[in-house]
Amino acid sequence: MPRIENVKRWRDVSAGNIQKVSSDISIPNSVPFSINLLFDKVLGEAVSREGTNIIGSQLIAGNACLGLFQHLDSTAASNKLFAGFNGLMSSSIYDVLGGNAEVTGLTASARQHYATFLNTTLMLNGSEKRSYFGGSWSSSGGRLDVGNVPAGAKFPIEFKDRMYCAVTDRIHYTSTPTSVTANAVSWTAAGSGSLQAEQEDGGGTIQGLNKVPGYLMIYKQRSLKRWNFDSSFPEDLINIGTQSHDSVVRARGKNYFFYGPNGFYETQGGYPKLISRPIQRIIEGIASSFYSSVNGWSDNENIYWSVGDVTVNFDRGYTETYTNVVLRFHIDSQEWAPLQYYHIFRALNQYISGNDTLIAGGDADGQVLQLNTGNTDYHATPKAIKYILQSPEFDFDFRERRKTLAEKICVHSDLTTGALLQVRMDYAEWKTIGSLKDVVTEVPINPITAFVFEFRIADSITGEQIKLRGLDFPYIDVLAN
Questions:
Q1: Residue 475: which of 81, 65, 50, 6 has the closest Cα?
Q2: Phi and psi, residue 3, nearest 5°
Q3: DSSP classification of residue 384
Q4: Cβ partners under 8 Å of residue 336, min gap 6
Q5: Does the CA dihedral 222-223-229-232 come out positive or negative?
Q6: What is the phi/psi pair of residue 220, to 5°?
Q7: Which of 4, 44, 176, 400 is the most interior residue, by most CB within 10 Å?
């Protein structure tokens, strides 16, 4: 058969990752796999992510973050960024910018969860309870009546002018503030109380609390419930829950959460909607041992979830493992971007610095890091950012016939000098066939023949963000059977 007359082009990646879809029905502007590339910055192009930098200094080397929270006061000068870190025999709460431990002797390895109400931050970890107000921590009294928080309480949250917490499968709540002058709540006074979350078979214990407009959301291990304080809720919604309170993220009036092994869901108080089907290979590669450690945060534009190490199965026995993976979901475009960092994030939270709302992450080495800053990942020796862009399968409309690509492949990109162009033919091994320059690279190739072609562009960078526009195939011969 003759040479295909027109140049075949692949120039649009605006749909981001859409995985495990037959090439016969795949979305043309999607990619089957990428690492450290964003698809919403320049529509149609892939742009490498930004790096990380430390906030303050290292707090306790070699120890994992147990919780991260910014106390936001009505007096901005009193704002504090707190991080809980494990220690040798116990855990502590650190002032991240001050660099000192403000609370010590807490239970080792117990996850710390925080909430602020009435200018007071409450910390619960299932064993201890502390409140922060006016520059100091307390274990009794105060505006949130911390001494009377029920034993074993976790997951503090404010809802309808009350503080809530959970103990096993019971919800406890305070009174509303007694008066403008008193400005305090009580866990024991009139108006306080508790609610038994249904003990249905197989639902498990409460794993987290959150809220959407009108409802307190109650997340058990294998079921999801809601309560509005006035009705006889909760009742079962569906047998979907979460293994991790820290995976439940509130953004734009909705909750987004992880339920392993199914994936990530969205709910506004009703039936949850699965949103992670486009990254199915990644979901299947998350280690089940990390389900209870999945954690996230949102800036109301993107949601970031730290999912640990991921082993991606590309079929035919071919796998790749990526460490310290963060999944970024762009709410408006619904695009997914798998990111890989030098550090593993054990807690994510907002960090308001001046007029900037930033994303902070506590790692497993006693550090709190700012995401999306600079062009390297933080380390004494700055770490390069590795990126991969994988093309869809190309059969050039003749899947039943072998094709030969000859002479050259044109790559369109910015700041990619030294990047590798790789090919995989008929699902065999990846082979490097050339390297890139800048803007437009005509990569000369020896003739390559296959039914199906896939391409990758890969490199590690420490400079400016790169951009990838796509590939052109000028010379394609369709072979006779």
A1: 6
A2: -70, 140
A3: P
A4: 16, 17, 276, 278, 279, 282, 327, 328, 329, 330
A5: negative
A6: -100, 180
A7: 4
Question: CA 308 to CA 289: how far, in whole Å?
Answer: 10
Q: Tell me the pLDDT tens digit for each residue of 226-249.
A: 898 876 455 555 789 999 999 999
| CA dist 295 → 101, 218, 261, 326 (Å) | 23, 17, 15, 9
For 403, 404, 477, 480, the CA distances from 1, given in Å and listed in that order, are 10, 11, 7, 5
Query: Which residues, listed in sequence order, are joined to residue 198 by a DSSP beta bridge?
Result: none
Verify cis geometry, omega within 30 degrees of 0, for the bond prior to 28.
no
Phi, then psi, of 247 in degrees rounded to 5 = -85, -15
Longest Cα separation, the chain: 88
Sign of CA dihedral 304, 308, 313, 318: positive
> Phi then psi for 426, rounded to 5 degrees?
50, 45
pLDDT of res. 180: 55
187 close to 149: Cβ distance less than 8 angstroms: yes
Give the integer Cα–Cα distance in Å for 351 and 362.
12
pLDDT at residue 230, rounded to an integer: 75
Which amino acid type is present at position 45?
A: E
What residue has token string 């998350």?
286
Read off the tokens for 302: 């993107």
427 and 393 Cβ atoms separated by less than 8 Å? no
Query: What are the residues facing 422 on neighbouring strands?
Result: 432, 456
Phi, psi of 321 (to 5 degrees): -110, 130
Output the six-digit token pair for 177. Answer: 């503030």
Positions in the chain short of pLDDT 50: 232
Residue with tokens 């389900």: 291
**Structure token pair of residue 267:** 């709910």
- The distance of Cα 160 from the centroid of its chain, to the nearest Å, equals 28
pLDDT tens-digit map of 305-347: 999 999 999 999 999 999 999 999 999 999 999 999 999 999 9
What pLDDT is stored for residue 232 in this prediction? 46
Distance CA 187, CA 153 (A): 12
Give pTM, 2 decimals: 0.95
At a CB cut-off of 8 Å and minimum separation 6, what does 303 contact? 249, 251, 256, 296, 297, 328, 329, 331
| Cβ neighbours of 236 (radius 10 Å) | 12
Predicted confidence at residue 23, as pLDDT, reads 87
State the pLDDT at residue 431. Answer: 97
Tell me how far apart the alpha carbons of residues 477 and 452 are, in angstroms, rounded to a whole number: 13
Q: What is the CA radius of gyration of the chain?
A: 25
Strand ranges across the sheet with 431-435 = 33-35, 385-390, 453-461, 420-425, 431-435
Specify the DSSP class assigned to residue 237: -
The whole-number pLDDT of residue 40 equals 94
